Amino acid sequence: MAVTAKMVKELRDKTSVGMMDAKKALVEAEGDIEKAIDLLREKGMAKAAKKGDRVAAEGMTYVMEDGNKAAIIELNSETDFVAGNKEFNDLLAAVTKVILEKQPADVEAALALEGEDGRTVNDMIINVSQITGEKITLRRFATMEKNDNEVFGAYSHMGGSISALALFEGSNAEAARDIAMHIAAIAPQYVSDADVPAEVVAKEKEVQLASEDLNGKPDNIKEKMVEGRIKKFLAEISLLDQPFVKNGDQKVADFAKENGLTVKSFVRYQVGEGIEKQQTNLADEVAKQLG
User: Fold this and answer.
1) Fewer CB within 10 Å, N or C, the chain?
2) Residue 84 backbone dihedrals phi, psi, to 5 degrees
3) Residue 208's Cα: distance from chain center in Å?
4) What region holds the Translation elongation factor EFTs/EF1B dimerisation domain (predicted)?
């Protein structure tokens, strides 16, 4: 039976093994996924064979800088307990270092990169996954490069539950960090209102026009009220228009300007955002294990 890319992906999702190992196991198992899982388990390569079916929504974010390069990543685990142990933290730093140095295009490319010890990022993750017994995944990352007249701002909150990395024109590193802290705390979505896509504005306008409190009002009054609400909406999601977290009387734009900074871009990661977490019942879990 021919082994397809779809079969390889399914086996990798279920076992977290490397692409070639998955393909070899499928060839040996003649395309039988369950048999391939057993083969991998026998070889110690898939300690938790079904961990791909579980949700890894805990973990940590991490930021690393080196000269004119920087990287931010999110590495997920199934529990915050594992996210706090030494093996996970060492893995977090090692993976970030490889990504920082080699600036891969996407997660797939990152997983194939080799670290200092010759192991791929994917193999590093599998190793720690086997040690902890939990599914561990590299969910996402972003890299940045700066010029000599630019500066990075980086900040991690609550041990890495939230991290922000920003790029500025200017040289004030302390002010850059303060703005990165604001980004981590307040979660802006865009640098300025000019960066907000037209479809986002149109959708918000549609929502506001349908507001019950506008029922029965003349169209010209409706338009004026909605215009005001759109302006408020844009100010809430745009970094430069937000009240600065360390001084609510000052906008971020004003703080940046007085410190000689121009915000170029930013990335903010919060662990598990957008991942639907599984709801577990402790009694059921214990019963399953005893059974």
Assistant:
1) C
2) -95, 0
3) 31
4) 70-273
Helix (H) or strand (E) holding 151: strand 150-157
For 67, the domain range is 54-145
Question: Please, where are the H alpha helices in the chain?
Answer: 5-15, 19-28, 33-42, 80-83, 86-102, 107-112, 121-132, 173-186, 198-209, 219-237, 252-258, 282-290
Q: For position 27, which CATH number holds?
A: 1.10.8.10
> Which CATH number covers residue 75?
3.30.479.20
The C-alpha atoms of residue 161 and residue 139 are separated, in whole angstroms, by 14
In a domain, 132, yes or no: yes
